[in-house]
Structure formats: C-alpha cells, structure tokens
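Fill-in record for YbaB/EbfC DNA-binding family protein.
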Amino acid sequence: MSAKVNAKGELVELKFPTQKYRQMAPAELAQAIKDVIERARTQMSAHVAETLGRFAPEGVNMADAMNGQINPTQMMSKLDLPFMGTDVPGRSERPEVG
C-alpha cells in the first residue's frame, strides 16, 4: 500500500495496489495503514523543512522550527531584528494591543 500527504501532512491518497490487504487481520491492517501514513508524513515533513531551510537564517533548523522546538528570540537575533517577547532587555511585559 502507499499513501500521499500534502505539505500540511494531511492524507490525500491511500492506495492498495494488490488484494493482499484482504487477507490481513483488522488490527494488522489498521497498523499497516497507520505506518504507511506516518512514513509519508515524515518524508513530506523532511522535504518541506529542506525546502524552507533554503530561505531560513543560517543556523536555523527548519525541522525544529516546524515542530515548535525553536526559540523565536534566538531566531530573530540571527537576523539582527528585535523580538517583542518578555525576554527583551528593558522590557518587562508584552505591549498592549488595541
């Protein structure tokens, strides 16, 4: 079987090229489907991270950024831009909006 996902990791296609799946136990088939979808998501995530990484500041790991494993202050500092977070020197709280 094969699976295709879009850049968001959403399943867009699931194919069963043979009839072998009909001989699988329900739990075995369910696990095989989950595994093939997870492989497709992992591959697409790596592809997206690699593509976006070409535009990221040097030293920024896009896979980490996509998974929420990056400090935005550190990323902005690599661009020599201030970040309006609470850890900016001289700033004790976020600015009020509205």
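KEY FINDING: The beta strands are 2-5, 11-15.
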